[in-house]
Design brief:
CATH architecture of the largest domain: 3 Solenoid
Largest sheet: 6 strands, mixed
Strand order of the largest sheet: 3-5-7-9-12-13
Number of strands: 13
Distance between the termini: 52 Å
Oligomer: single chain
Order of helices and strands: HEHEHEEEEEEEEEEE
CATH topology of the largest domain: Pectate Lyase C-like
Radius of gyration: 19 Å
Number of domains: 2
Length: 168
């Protein structure tokens, strides 16, 4: 079994994510706990007992960068959307809990929905990315759709797959 092999190699496993086929009893027998995925974790209740959206609970704060993002830079918007007025160079990384908007070429890595927000999107004027990801699902430059390359593109999740739609 995988857990036994890991333990023999002195790796300690304490939880499992996405182990839906394992019962609570089986997890307990293996000494593991179930760790809910970010998108499966319960949202906090407000003081009236109503569920709040992730943006409401985190206090959405969008970030705007008024310059190109250079190779080696990493820009993070922890609690909202990220807008880059310029390009994202190869070797650069942009990460947002919400959507990402790039008003230039996207050549580096873009990861939207970093906290599991499946409704997050990536928009760019020219798609040449090394990697695009939404809520943990990603595609690398080798697997990007040819029709969307070097075009104004909208990337989104649909049926647990990344979709790319040319704009205009």
């Amino acid at each position: 079994m995988l857990v036994a092999n890991l333990r023999r190699r002195k790796l300690r496993v304490f939880g499992v994510q996405g182990g839906g086929q394992l019962s609570e009893d089986a997890l307990q027998e293996l000494g593991l706990i179930a760790v809910p995925a970010g998108k499966d974790a319960p949202l906090p209740n407000d003081n009236r007992g109503h569920r709040r959206s992730r943006a409401e609970s985190l206090g959405s704060r969008n970030k705007v960068v008024h310059a190109p993002v250079r190779s080696g830079q990493m820009i993070v918007s922890e609690h909202g959307d990220l807008t880059v007025i310029g390009s994202v160079a190869s070797g650069a990384e942009v990460v947002a809990s919400g959507s990402i908007h790039v008003y230039g070429a996207l050549r580096g890595r873009a990861m939207a929905g970093a906290h599991g927000d499946e409704s997050a999107r990536i928009f760019c004027r020219c798609l040449e990315a090394e990697l695009v990801a939404i809520a943990g699902l990603y595609q690398t430059s080798e697997t990007l759709e040819d029709a969307a390359r070097e075009r104004c593109t909208h990337v989104y999740l649909e049926d647990d797959r990344l979709r790319m739609e040319v704009i205009g």
